[in-house]
Batch of 4 targets.
Target 1
Amino acid sequence: MAKSDGNQNWLALYSEAVLEPDRKKVKIRIAHAQMAIWRRARELWYAGAPETSERRHMDAAANFLGILRSIGKEKW
């Protein structure tokens, strides 16, 4: 199955958030990645897509971004 643009978008934004070296930019990158994951999950839900590895990866990515956000609250 080929990756859609939505898949590419959330993956790219997730990578940017996780790898962002500038602490001042991390918070906004996390927010953008979380929004992209939410949009992609909604897109899949409305399409009636079955459980996929992409969905599991999105869940893991969303959880990790949540951890980064909570850790960052103490540092930002």
Target 2
Amino acid sequence: MSTSVVLFSTLVLFLAMGAPIAYSLAGASLLAVFLGGEISSMVIVQRLFTGTDSFTLMAIPFFMIAGVLMETGGVSKRLIKLCGALIGSLPGGLAIVTIVASAFFGALTGSSPATVAAIGGIMIPEMMKAGYSEEFALSTSASCGYLGVIIPPSIVMVTYGLATGTSVGTLFIAGFIPGIIIALAMSVVAYVVGKKNGFVNKQRAGLPEIGKALRDAIPALMMPVIILGGIYGGIFTPTEAAAVSILYGLLVGLFVYRELKPKDIFKLFLRAGESSAKVMFILAGAMALGFVMNREMIPIKVTEAILAISGDSKFIFLLVVNILLLIVGCFMEANAAIMIIAPVLLPVMQQLDINLVHFGIIMTVNLGIGMITPPLGMNLVVASSISGAPVRKVLNRYLAYYLLASIAILYILTYWEAPILLLPRLLGR
């Protein structure tokens, strides 16, 4: 039996048995090498270590710590109050507030589950208290959470940059406009549903209320300006920016909003460390799997197969890849999927002269959609856990509306690269 067959059959078997994805990736790689007998199994252990020994990947735990500090330090509350004062009186206003606040919070943390937990934890009870259906509240919070990986900074974009050698800073710049477009599309869905179901119950805020909400939110709004401005201004790298975001989050939480207590800091760091360890272990397993795939020349075989299907047509290639990624996103964590798939597709993208930044955003959106698609659907699980409702309550027609809107925007962005590349080109990236 060939190493390739052992690799993929054992990977599928482990996943079907419900083994954690990190164990599945590393275990399949180790077993394939062991049965192949051509190289020592110790090489896989080495790859698990060297795969995560990267300066770029240090941004992941830093952004996760920053996200926990922002969530606990009162930042999410201020963002929600500001959005509520500005747009809460619209039909479906509280749902739109959830979407816009998630977009802002995503610009602070780069994490989709953190966005669902921080914003959904506040807004799901608020929407239900205001008479919104539980299904609509749950699906809205779960869906808009993936804006956290589209709007920079983004942990998924950091992973893609490492996998393909693409500038992380340029990917961050490119994610702004697509993130805003997706947020607008979701807001339209929320508005239409709100108007149809009579979800309107908040008086329009006056200028004093808006002014107070804006003043309170200024420290929160300044974080993306400092972090992203520092990256684009050449003051620090994305990894250094992630470290700066921790310092800023501590200062704001401890001394500005004063909702972060010194005695809680260790617990918060421990919580973020546990989440980071899970992601890094997944990436390590993906690196090991990638090593075996490269030894078996699987990327070359996949390239030949895709080119045989698409020929020299970018249109067909992108269509096939979008379908592939939407399916993969249903079953695999985004960072692992990128580390496995992006290097495989890289030769094809280069041969078809596809812009790597454009493709990076397409891939990020695809796998972001996977976060709200069963059976894996990480955001669905988070929304369910913070509300206490079963996951099946999140799977409803409102989630389907958000999915359809997201997929429609995905295909527009796939074949119209201008919204993605506009800012990088204007900034000379």
Target 3
Amino acid sequence: MTNSAHTPHSSTAHQSHMPGWMVFLFACACGLMVANLYYSQPLIGLIAPEIGLSDSAASLIVTLTQIGYCAGLILLVPLGDLVENRKLVIFTICGAILALFIAMLAQNATWFLMGSLLVGIGTVAVQMLIPIAAHISPEEKRGRTVGNIMSGLLLGIMLSRPISSLIAHSFGWRPVFGVSACLLVLLAVILWLLLPIRKPNSHHHYFSLIASLWPLLRDTPILRRRAIYQACLFASFTLFWTISPVLLASPMYSLTQLGIALFALAGAAGALAAPIGGWLADHGHTKIATAGSLLTVAAAFLLSQLGGMGSLPALVIAGILLDLGVQCNVVLGQRAIYSLGAEIRSRLNALYMAIFFAGGAIGSGIASLAYVTGGWSLVAWIGFAFPIGAFIYYLTE
């Protein structure tokens, strides 16, 4: 891969390390963008009646956002191996900005659901940024750099729900999308000015690029393995965070929206694991750290059984342990696949993310049914089964 030598933007890729200010910029950018996937989750009860969406169809708000994200991962993120990366990121962010304004101004379900789908598609800009960071970073520091950036992304995931709840509590749900759109406008300008230019050397055209995804998945065992590990852990993650607010609002705890927001903020402490995971990967400890991550998530769900019996401290600690394990493992996986070849890095990242987000969709999809059928106890046992299944697979390495 080559960078244009005549522009100051290109010089960053040739430095001995990724500057600290740029790591911070990437982390903030990833957090701001990925939060758009989750803002609407705690607001469904407010949004659906206003746009004329029935209770039975209200979950489409979340579902279409996730569908859009998965579609963007497969159809847009691989373009990072084909076209100039800075322009690709900016154009995709602009799509997200338009989608957020559509959602904010929507007066009926059709327009809002279309906006939700487009928000998901535009949010994949975050998965275009991370391979750029891997390209800039030298091999010996790549894991730590990606880990630090993933801390921002994971904080965005964890903080999005309480932030949207607090804004909606004071100002209604529409400003949530408007504020996010304005922040992305500012972010797009900053990234346009500061992102390095990176033009991949590729002989593909678009359709052959997309067609190459299946051979990559088929012929890259480490990609399949790391994606399966993370899909199992992310299924547990979404299972826990979809139902825990329901449990906390139940008569057992009777927490208000503010209390549930504070609970989510406590769980965000688990984002500290991402740089730790990157450091362990850089120092050759990926295998043992993977085992630790899988078992930490399993232990979190065993502990969470006490939360189902009325112990709020146990539930808080379980949430922190869960996030620690999930976030450490995602960085270990990215560090491993980013070492496979710079020319296929965007496609590898697209496949990795698409598979593990599919796991997350499974976890959130079965959450309500599990809770209605067997209460928190069944939710916790299912959450325990996912990492244990991944650990059994891990033993075959």
Target 4
Amino acid sequence: MANMLDYLDWRGDLSMAKDPFNEVDNLILAELSYIPFNQYMPGADSGESVLLKDVGKAFFEDHPLEESAEAWNKSPQVLKSAMKMNRFKNMKLRWFVDEFDQENEQQLSIITFELEDGTAYVAFRGTDGTLIGWKEDFNMAYLFDTPGQKRAAEYLNEHFTNYDRPIRLGGHSKGGNFAMYAGMFCDPAVKEKVQEIYSNDGPGFHDEVMATDFYKETKDKIISIIPESSVVGLLLENQLNHILVKSTEDGFKQHDPLSWRVKRTKFVRAPELSSSSALLDTTLTQWLGTLDIKERKIFVDSLFDTIAASGAMTIDEMNSNPVKCYSAIIKASAKLSKKKQKVISDAFGKLAKTGREVFMENMQTKVEGIVEEIKKPKGDKEEKIEEKSKEKPKEKPEPAAT
């Protein structure tokens, strides 16, 4: 089944002057933001730009595709294809920033693509494999804004106040959240230039953000695209009408954008959210509602403190030696204060209780629906049988005379 790589093979020969920017183009650019462009790009303050085909050539001279695909998942495959295609190869890349601040729990990377149609697309990278990157995601549950979100808005103000092109914002996962936040809280002069904001399976916001005029003023520009079994894209609040797309994967693996099915210039639509995703969304939303802001902070900080005590700095490091890592986590959790242990225990207890309640409520609704369906067709069927029995049987035609 076709994905964005197939789209590049099929549509890549057409420039955007001949075929306008579309939702699949958005995902390709969001995926390219995961490439570590650091040593191949001029500094963000220089104002200089480079062409995608030139950056790609330099990148693959240092990192063969097999090696880079193992290190950076599937993004290099997208770059390898895009850098050869008329649609993308002559794009200008500029203002690349890559910041990692462990003390402030910030992981941020942004790059601007200037397209041939006279617009620019600002791509915000999603969560990388670092624990700090994941911690920042969890911090959104209790913070109005994170350092990374604020820095994303600052980036727009720094580079686009006097910019003369219309701009699109977008990103995958946390990058989608950063794109939305930056579009909401950038300066008015920049906000006027923002045409569209793409959130590709990006999480939502603290409920206080949803109540602001900034959100209400920007909401109509946001295009939220999530797979039918989304997990990340339904976290926290967003109040958006999502575009649901089909994926070749199941469950959490649908978060991988290369699994999203493509037909021509659009993603293949899914009719509705999967039952498992809807159930998880309801469970997590109700569970967070049982925790006040202070409890959320203690829970998140304590959880990641115990993980950090294992010595792992990345998800890969955790997975490389899971027994040793989880053993260290258990030991570290035992050293937490009684108060923090109680918050974590209570939080997981509330999660389990909420999960059971939502599941039972969902099952009850399904059973009631089944009962109603059984009742209705049965009566109709009996009436139709009775009516049919009253019909005069048709006579067989007599054989033709010979």
